[in-house]
Structure formats: structure tokens, C-alpha cells
Write a structure and sequence with these properties.
8 helices; 8 strands; alpha/beta; single chain; globular
Length: 226
Amino acid sequence: MMYDPAEHRIRSFVTRAGRLSIAQARALETLGPQFLLPFAKAPLDTVQAFGRVAPVILEIGFGMGDTTAHIARAMPDKDFIGVEVHTPGVGSLLKQIGEQEITNLRLLQHDAVEVLTHMIAPGTLAGVHVFFPDPWHKARHNKRRLIQAPFVKLLAERLAPGGYLHCATDWQHYAEQMLEVLGGEPTLQNSADGYAPQPAYRPLTKFENRGLRLGHGVWDLVFIKK
């Protein structure tokens, strides 16, 4: 059996059971068959998944999905794949897809590294969003952070030339690590001199607004595939 590095590594998330609301459970049941893609160890046919040819942007760890829904609505000419492991978040975003009639968004409930390794062909993504990943702020847990050199290399390989990787964090130490790791990937080029201005397409979250009022910082990083 071939060794698969995606299956032998430190995971950057902890699976939490979480309580599903009635509305989330209903969305999973009624909308899941149409908008929730099954994980498979085979390249995803995005034309079949979306019914059209369009640039594809992958979001990793969409939480409850508010930002993802907002961006997908704002960019109807692009197709979005959201990856999240937690069931309540998947149910929440499916509910928004139904309520807001979002047609250019599909979801995958699975580990992002395995999705990237097996389902996303090299050089095919127009963009990748990684917003507010778990900072694992205790020093002994830093090794669990998602943005590490091997993962960034994998992301860069999946981007098409000219595609972008957009990360955001509200944890300064993690922002500094992101800047160092992204800057160390030879196939990526920083779009800014250091941290980037917040792109207009990324809305401020309630949590972020509260943090900004308290004087907390938020750092965006946007790197382009050479």
C-alpha cells in the first residue's frame, strides 16, 4: 500500500460534535444531496459539479459560513468550494444557500489536506481563502497550525499561474508566522509590501468588528502564484 502523507500528519483541527439546530439538520437533509459533494480519492470534475466552466475558489474552514455566502453572492461569475469538518457549520451554510438561492457554491465536509491531495488537480484553482484558522496560541501547540511550509507548498501547487492565496488572522504571532512561511514558498509572490490591505470582497465578521473596537489587530496576506 502506497504511503500517503495526507494520512500521516498532525491535524490542525479537533473534531467537535456540536449540536445541530433543527434548521441545520433540515438543510443537511434537503439541500445536502445537491450542494454537499462526497469526498473521493479522485479528481473533482468542477464542470459537472457546477454545471458550467468558471474560475474556482476554494475556502478552507468556513466556520458557520456567513463570509463564504457573502463572497459567493458578490462574485456570481466564480464558483466556490467550501471545506469544513464541523457538521453544524455545514448545516448553517447549506441553510444560507437555500435561503439566499446561492447557486455557485458547493461544500465538502472533510479534511482539507486530503481534499487538496486527492480531489483538486494541480494548477486548477483561481484562488484559495483561509480566514481565521485556529491560532493554536500555546507554544507547544504551534505545530498544529494549518499554515506550515508543506501545506503552503500543496496550496501553491493547486493554484493556477496568477491565482491567489488569501489568509487572514487576528493573532499577531500567527500573522508573523504566515508572512514568513508564505514568503518562503518560491512559487508565490507577495502582492503587498508585507501585510495586504483588507480586500473589499472579505466582509468584517461580528467577531472581527468586536475585536477592532477593542483595539485588536487583523492581518490579511495575499500572495500570487508566479
